[in-house]
Design goal:
Layout: H1 12-34, H2 42-76, H3 83-106
Helix pairs in contact: 1-2
Transmembrane segments: 45-64, 85-106
Membrane topology: Multi-pass membrane protein
Keywords: Membrane, Transmembrane, Transmembrane helix
């Protein structure tokens, strides 16, 4: 891949790339943390964990393309936003969190404890 130079002293493409990397890390940690409660709802937790790890993998694999497009857009003076990717990740995380909340609310006493 050819390096495209932009005139952005704030290094916007680099900050955006770091943001998506932190998002991938957060999604992966959240999905792996859920495995702590997999004994209570094994199939549901495993499915959610796999879906979230796949989402993180998809974000990670498309990050290079997004970085190059953002860098090229800055060099040309026109940067197109990516609301689709943002809404997809946000929607997946909202579904993920709400399903976990439902599992916590509907679980019998003592299933979900924060302290052992």
């Amino acid at each position: 891949m050819n390096a495209i130079h932009h005139d952005d002293p704030g290094l916007q493409p680099e900050r955006t790339s770091l943001l998506w990397t932190r998002t991938v890390l957060s999604i992966t940690i959240a999905s792996l943390t859920m495995l702590r409660w997999s004994w209570a709802y094994p199939w549901m937790i495993y499915v959610q964990s796999v879906v979230m790890v796949l989402l993180a993998f998809a974000v990670l694999t498309t990050q290079g393309r997004r970085y190059a497009a953002h860098n090229l857009g800055l060099a040309r003076g026109v940067v197109k936003p990516n609301p689709g990717g943002v809404f997809l990740v946000a929607g997946a995380l909202i579904l993920f969190a709400s399903s976990e909340l439902v599992l916590i609310i509907l679980s019998p006493p003592g299933v979900y404890t924060l302290v052992d």
